[in-house]
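Example record used in the benchmark description.
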Amino acid sequence: MQQPTAYFWSGEVMRSRSVSDCVLQTRLEVPAPPARLLADWERDISGRLGLEPGDVETLSLARARLRWPDYARCVQALAGWTRGLGWQELLGSSEIALMACRGTRYHHDAAHYGGAAFCNLFLSEDKGLDLHFPLAGVRIPLVRGTAVVFDTAQPHAVIARQGAGFVAADFAPGLDVSLVFLTWELALEDVQLARAMGLRFDTDVATAACLHEEQVWCHGRAVRVCPDSGRWLPVAA
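Model output (structure tokens):
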């Protein structure tokens, strides 16, 4: 299969790049969030956010930090790992958010974050879920302390460990299958990060010059991700 190309904004210029199938992962020793903070998150997830199967939404990080004495320890643990990868202070200069999901359908994030890799630190206990990258052939059990870095253009999903794809019934009401994680947007134009991910830039300058939105192409046309399987599908004309 032809390798996909991602088109992304670099300032006011649209650039092209390869899509990395490199998924970096580790498991860090991070303390469990306190019980009252877990209760806050659960109330938000079931009430204010009302997460449905496959939904991913933002939680308030500022509010969480008021009840999270070990927040700094979690960030420091992740920063120690990324520094060990040679990225120095990249984590500290990147945007951070606190997220909740109830599984996720297969998708890519390069339509909005095409110039970034995501760095995620999972805070929930093992709930029998995996982070799956079907085209890269990578499947990662999600437990407290799981840390991953991946290309936003790489199709991925959070699915049941015994499942072969995303099934909404695996995330039905009443099941304890919601996850909370911290996420950072790492700039892929950082030299050390780009080298670690094996990226090539400006692979299709001519097409990039004609585009006005971030997107992914394969076989000469824009593609999307099948939400059930993670396969690339053509975008309808």
